[in-house]
Amino acid sequence: MLIEVMMTAALAAAAPSAAAPQGGSPTIARQDPAQAAAFRARAEQLLGLLADGDPQAIDAFLDAHLLTPAIPDMEPAAATRTRLKALARQSGGVDVAEWHPMPDAIFFEGVTRKGQLPVEGALFFKGDKLAGIDLQRNRLKRPADAPAWPLKAMSVDEALKAIRAEIDWRARNELFSGTVLIAHRGTPVLTGSWGLAARGPDLPNRDDTLYHTASATKMLVSAAIATLIDDGKLALDTPVGQAVPGLASAPEAGKVTIGDLLGHRVSYGEYFEDLDRAPELRKADRASDLLPLLAKRSPRRAPPGRIAYSNANYLVLAAAIEAASGRPFRDYVSERVMKPLGLKRTTYGEIGGRPAGAAIGWVKDSLTDPLGLEAFRPNDFMFKASYRGGPAGGAWASAGDMFALIDGIAAGKLVKPATLQAMLADRRRQGPTLGSALGFMFRGGDKLAFFGHAGGGGNAGMSASAFIAPDREWAVVVLSNFSSPSGEMLAGQLLDYLAKLPRESSPSSR
Prior knowledge:
With about 500 residues, the protein is of the alpha+beta class. About 30% of the residues lie in helices and about 20% in strands. The protein is built from 14 helices and 21 strands. The strands form 6 sheets. The chain has an 8-stranded antiparallel β-sheet with strand order 6-5-21-20-19-18-17-16, sandwiched between helices. The protein has a 4-stranded antiparallel β-sheet with strand order 1-2-3-4, with helices on both faces. Strands 9-15-12 form a 3-stranded antiparallel β-sheet. Strand 16 and strand 17 (about 435) form a beta hairpin. The protein is globular, with a radius of gyration of 23 Å.
């Protein structure tokens, strides 16, 4: 969501250095009072226009104040115009309860005059121009009928009952749709499904429903790389130029390592749009066939202590799998990862759409329906490009299979403990509790609490998260056919709560 991008950018701008120290948070720079007043005045002017609902006045405001062309990560001006006019129609204006000025931005919270919906908004500035504008439902504001949240520490059995009641409430209020699996010491103790896999006729999500796993797909490649490390065919410090013959003469290929790619210590950028422009490559069976898309790129190294997230990194890793194994990466993943762990409900799919048994992703049009008041529509637009799931994302899996994947890795069924330990030891934070190890995301502060991976894709009808404690005390898998962050947010909240529970004997299965 744009507001998340803006908050991240504002925090980065406010931090005194490029990276916060381990165990610390960025220090927020003091806001200049005159500047804060100017930001608030501009925000109040915009909110007044939303209350008036005059589309021509909104256009005139944007003509005068919106930065063009848009800076990277901000939406185009035409989209902002469409969305603000829809917001005027849906909100009737906003009564602001709280203002939060920051350097180069102002955030606010309030309720809409139509429907009294809790909302949060932001204006982001570059000089005297507006670089971005957002206003959306505040999903963290809970009405009186919601269960108490966050949950308080209690017995494990009581916690599982409370978690199920919370998910029931979220599903009733269209905040979640999907399957949740919670395991304790290697045994599932809560498995449940909520919402609809199809509409008209309605088909409910089931515990064996397949969901698009988005970037959580990357763990299949990470696991495959780990098996090749165990076999002595690759190492974390193997240079790309050695591991991937197709990039042997590419820029910096001798300096970038397998570990760099796994942990996003460097970035080869993205490749999905390039693939869309090269339809002849959509049916390619080997990742190596796509390397011409990257052959001339110079990978960008992340600043010290930071990451530079890259989907193309995993395309290069898949090509390394092919070079080391002599097989297409999907075949190798199937033989060396899926079969040993019994992943019978995991697939990269086929060209043309969703596999059998898969949930349809449900979305709302963020431009014409920014407050999400209208009916859901299927995310069919996600499959117009017609290519299979790949190394960076797009595989389909059941919650049970995703648990079998992370539990099998943690239990040493697939990867040698020393290899996994080396991959998890190299960690860089992205925030107070989330960061990137090599091949996996992690949650926790200075001490690793959980590892796994999450994935979403904005307003795309998919949201996935699968994490496990290294000692297998708790594991949480949330697969959703609602847009990000439906699944990732729920999973993160559950993980943080379960980590605080007192250790006791295994609960009864629920």
